[in-house]
Amino acid sequence: MRHYLALLLLPLLYVSCTEDTQNIGIFPVADDIANSNALFNVYTRSTLLDSVLYRGTYNYLGCIRDPETDVDIRANFAAQFHTFENYRFPQRHLLFPDCQKTHDSEPVKCDSIELRLYYTGYLGDPNNPMKLEVYPLSFNKIIEEDSLYYVNTNLEEYVDAGTAPIATKVFTAVDYSVSENVREDDKYTNNIRIMLPREYGDKLLNTYYEHPEYYRNSYTFIRKVCPGFYFKIKNGTGTMVNVDVSTLNLFFTYYDEEKPDSTYGSICRFAATPEVIQTTQFTNGDLQDLADDEDCTYLKSPAGIGTEVTLPIHEIYEGHMADSISKAQLTLQRYNNSSKDDNTLSIPEYVVLIRKDDAVSFFRDKKLPDNQTSFIASFSKTFNSYTFENLGRFLTYCRYEREKGVQESGLSPEAWEAAHPNWNKMVAIPVSVVKTTDSYGSTAYASVSHNMALSSTRLVGGPNTPIKMQVLYSRFK
């Protein structure tokens, strides 16, 4: 249904083709521009996002329940570990484990080996116990650097079938085994310490002395020595930590040949860094029930829900075929949280509105918004909404594509639309953005990627509740 509003009063623009510079920029009165304004119904619905690329430098681990949606969100992750190029241990005979010198013919031993998962933030109850299992990744199916991994990737496929966990750990977000004075020190970082079997450390050391070339770089280290680990929450709900850095620490003792009576404790640290793969797997409760809600729509990240938008292009152009669309504004209004729980997930800060058929390739190819088929809006706390100021170019693009497609295919307009059901559809997806500022103070987007943070919000709309798009037309009288 169309609703017409009063004409907007806008400044009139004029041009001149005479040589009289006094009137340059002034239209003849007969060429005045007329403007009109209309509102149109726009229908939205929630849509499940199943191709969310993981491109993050941190990982989530835990399981929490979103108090607003009553849906469990579980996060496990896998990490590879980086080694410095041509890393060297002390000569074999200098190792001194258990106060005994090592002979060249004997296997070497470490003192101990551990994993540390460092995190700076967490969601949920800091005192809630969570049980963690650690599995070694498989040599037979390596997580490859040049492959794409999505947040719904089944990471257990990278663990050999039947493999038992190499270690287990029960942890809380606040480690009370560490004194309060230490925890409050600015140099302290919350971490989960996981002791691995000493035999695993012995294996790493002996592999080095048998094949030092395997430590040449991270590529060979991952494929020949340590493919990495899969960290899986076995039991517990109510806590999720944000793991910034993971390290594999190997401790050993050696002595100095020049000082035979002196021994030294040392540590070899391998870190999960941007040079190697880290990827988180998110699983949610039954999101289909949320997606089927007809009284609202959702935005949830990272493994969650987007909002599909169907634009009424036929109605917008009906009676305005000769007009130009100066502005087409769409606002996604947010419902306030129904839950007062302190652990309610955050509101997505940025949302990209992108042509539905481009939603996968946009992120895969690392594209940026072009304000023709993709647009970005930030959340306004003042208006509790996301506003896309002008989708006019998208409306024009879709109309032109449809007309050209009908002409080239020889199909009827109805048949062409049936063959291209998404021709007038867009989808809103939570994103993270990186901006740059030039020397003149102008900002531009440097990158746009799926939001890897846990966020959720409900929007006004749904199949039963259309939202409004405001369209401004212009024409010469």
Low-confidence stretches: 1-30
Sheet/helix structural class: mainly beta
Number of strands: 22
Cα shape: elongated
Oligomer state of the chains in this structure = single chain
Helical content (DSSP H or I, runs of 4+): 10-25%
* Number of DSSP helical runs: 8
Write down the secondary-structure element order: EEEEEEEHEHHEEEEHEEHEEHEEHHEEEE
Percentage of β-strand residues? 35-45%
Distance between the termini: 26 Å
Description:
The chain is mainly beta and 477 residues long. It folds into two domains: 3-51 and 287-476, no CATH class; 59-273, no CATH class. It has eight helices and 22 strands. Strand 17 (374-380) and strand 18 form a beta hairpin. The chain is elongated. Residues 1-30 have low confidence and may be disordered.
